Amino acid sequence: MGLTAEQLRSELDSLARLEPAFAAAILRAGYPAPRINPRGHATLLRTIVGQQVSTLSADSTYRKLEGLVGSLDDPDNIARASDETLRAAGLSRQKASYARSLAEEVTSGRLDFDALPADDEEAIAALVRIKGIGRWSAEIYLLFAEGRLDIWPAGDLAVQIEIGRLLGHEVRPSEKRVRKLAEAWRPHRGALAIFTWHHYNSEMVVI
């Protein structure tokens, strides 16, 4: 499961003590709601569906896919589905191949969600070896499904935009710059990532 409301509040309060700009932003936008997903195949598949499309589009495709093949908790349902069925759900040819690859990793036992390494970088490495899973997808999974406290998806555009805004940068900082800045915010970076998405979407944000 992901970070609870209590964990988010505690982590963000710690960050507010480290960085006054974060304290001011929390006062403006409030604390984010928890973003919790179950551990396992369905959640990692959802990150594949969500790559390079809007949240609304991804949600629609995911629901359609589940309606056509059955529960997405069971990777066998993806493995048994025809290419035509996967395409009918809205998956591109590439994403359909990624979905099949993930299902094969799980059904073969090569990927055991209950046995990912405790070290975050090792866990990311174990996930990115799967076809279609890049660093961002691995980080999102570990943050939302496992609630790892210090996951930092610095490659996420909204994270970059909001860190730049919050710290008063004139231009959006690069992924490399955001990773370097965030070293000072260990071990609370997972909550900060969730807050940047909350702040990005908040109508209370003053730009």
CATH class of the largest domain: Mainly Alpha
Q: What class do helices, strands and sheet pairing give?
A: mainly alpha
Along the chain, the helix and strand elements come as HHHHHHHHHHHH
Helix fraction bin? 55-70%
Total count of helical runs of at least 4 residues: 12
Termini separation comes to: 33 Å
CATH topology of the largest domain: Endonuclease III, domain 1
CATH superfamily of the largest domain: Hypothetical protein, domain 2
Query: Quick one: how many beta strands?
Result: 0
Q: What characterizes the major β-sheet?
A: none
Give Rg in angstroms: 18 Å
Number of domains in the coordinates? 2
The best one-word shape is: elongated
Q: What is the name of the CATH architecture of the largest domain? A: Orthogonal Bundle
Low-confidence stretches: 203-207
Nearest-integer average pLDDT? 94
Strand proportion: under 5%
Key features?
about 210 residues, disordered C terminus, mainly alpha, 2 domains, Endonuclease Iii, domain 2, elongated, Endonuclease III, domain 1
SSE order and pairing:
Blueprint: H1 5-18, H2 20-29, H3 41-49, H4 55-69, H5 75-80, H6 83-88, H7 93-107, H8 120-128, H9 135-144, H10 157-166, H11 175-182, H12 189-201
Describe this structure as you would to a colleague.
The chain is an all-alpha fold and 207 residues long. The protein folds into two domains: 5-36 and 150-201, Orthogonal Bundle (Endonuclease Iii, domain 2), CATH 1.10.1670.40; 41-144, Hypothetical protein, domain 2 (Endonuclease III, domain 1). Helices cover 60% and strands 0% of the residues. The chain contains twelve helices and no strands. α10 packs across α12. The longest helix has 15 residues, at 55-69. It starts with a helix and ends in a 6-residue tail after the last helix.
